[in-house]
Amino acid sequence: MSKSLTDKTISGLNWSFIGNNLLAVINIVVGIILARLLVPQDFGLLGMTYVFLGLAELFVTLGMGFSIQRIKILTKEHIRVATTTTIFSSAVIYLIFWFFAPYISKFYAEERLISIIRVLSSIFIIQGLVTVSYGQIRRDLDFKYILKIDLISMLLGYGFISSTLAFLGFGVWSLVYGRIASAVISAIITIIKVPINLQPLIKKQEFKDLAGFGGGISLSNLIFYASSNVDLLIVGKLLNSHLLGVYTRALNLMKESLTKVTGGIYNVLFPAFAAVQDDPEKLKIAHLRTIQTVSFFVYP
């Protein structure tokens, strides 16, 4: 017997709540271990790259993952067009960062950033390959499987690989390789559930169906990202990687609980709201209840 949308949403919120708390604990524990094995400068170097790479991530998939969740009738053509788009856009952004890495390095006066940025940019290709598959899992509100993806990739990538390499003296590269490993592991588990359709397809109507909403999401995320990360750009530019490392560790620890609560709810409710987008009254009631729930946890 298939579950109703309400049952799926409640189940998704439960799994998201459990998952986010588990991930938060793991993140804090692994962060403490890495803080003992690495120096603040290592975290600072990575923080310098995240300002630019994080910005690029907003455009790697052109919001296709969200569009896949939102579109009312999802066809095979939509999936193929979305996959073609994300693979192409991720490859373009990867090449852009490969060539512009020296200029970012010059901006910070930190030559080591060239190789770090070029290696980390490979994550864009991985994201481009699996964004559509990941979006389909979210569309189905299968957050139990999402938890499996996030938990295994964090434990093996960030937890095991980064910690082991840090212990062996790899320095900042332990963080770089750990993040890449997490992305690869996440991608593998994702495509086990929803295989990638690699048949390229370009169709104007399907692209318009997807890009109209996805482009708006990308623009909205850009504004939010700029307002939330301009401080990292300033600290990294005016101070140094050591102080930026201290700042980012403290900032991430402070934000941990807030982002896990709000992010978890948002991830579940976006596809749930998309399923009732043609019922304004039901959508309005659900939206107001969501605001009340989030406020209850966040404002105190």
Structural commentary:
The longest helix has 35 residues. Helix content is 85%, strand content 0%. It has 11 helices and no strands. The chain has one domain. It is an all-alpha fold and 300 residues long. The model has no long low-confidence stretch (mean pLDDT 79). Helix 3 packs parallel to helix 6.
Low-confidence stretches: none
Gyration radius (Cα, Å) is: 20 Å
Distance between the termini: 40 Å
The topology string of helices and strands comes to HHHHHHHHHHH
What is the tally of beta strands? 0
Mean pLDDT: 79
Binned strand content: under 5%
User: Residue share in helices?
Assistant: over 70%
Category by helix and strand content: mainly alpha
Number of domains: 1
Shape: globular
Largest sheet features: none
Specify the number of helices: 11
Provide keyphrases for this structure.
mainly alpha, 300 residues, 85% helix
Sequence-ordered SSE layout with sheet pairings:
Layout: H1 5-37, H2 40-60, H3 64-70, H4 76-108, H5 113-120, H6 122-139, H7 143-167, H8 172-193, H9 204-238, H10 241-275, H11 280-298
In short:
With 300 residues, the chain is mostly helical.
